Amino acid sequence: MSIMGIDYGDKRIGVAITDELTGSAHPLKVIGNSLAIKEIKKLIAEYGNVEKLVIGMPYNLKDEVAFKAKQVLVWIEKLRAEISIPIVTWDERFSTSDAKDILIAADVSRKKRKEVIDKMAACIILQSYVDSRKGKISGEI
């Protein structure tokens, strides 16, 4: 079974997925926000073995659900109405800046960074979630 990670954005949404054999996260795709739920449903069907979605939650530095996080929660409710697999949220603070740092260190051009940063952020969110679950038997914490 795989887990799909999502980095929600107003314009673009990054998607990542875990490899079934290694459990490591890999960047998958960037999709436009206007078609996001439809595209996510397609990806779930395409992969066929997605057991869970992990969606980045943009808490503020005080661990509060601020304006942006409330937008994400509204979007999650729309997504839940369309799919039947479990959805969990995961702290995404600094995931985009971490993705940017990785891409700069890899000498990726500014134009190319803009094209891939969202799926890299989704990958960072998903890998963080996967790493936190290692050694746990079942159920959410």
Can you describe this structure?
- There is one protein chain.
- The protein is of the alpha/beta class and 141 residues long.
- The protein has one domain: Nucleotidyltransferase, domain 5, CATH 3.30.420.
- It contains four helices and five strands.
- It has helices spanning 36-47, 67-80, 95-105, 110-133; strands at 2-7, 12-18, 25-32, 50-57, 87-91.
- It has a five-stranded mixed beta sheet, with helices on both faces.
- α3 packs across α4.
- The two termini are 19 Å apart.
Rounded mean pLDDT score: 82
Q: SS-based structural class?
A: alpha/beta
| Assembly status | single chain
- Can you tell me the CATH architecture? 2-Layer Sandwich
Rounded to the nearest angstrom, the radius of gyration is 14 Å
Which regions are unreliable across 5 or more consecutive residues at pLDDT < 50? Answer: 137-141
Please state the overall shape, judged from the principal axes of the Cα atoms: globular
The proportion of residues in beta strands is 15-25%
Number of strands: 5
Number of discrete helical segments = 4
The CA-CA distance between the termini, in Å, is: 19 Å
Domain module count: 1
Helix amount, in percent? 40-55%
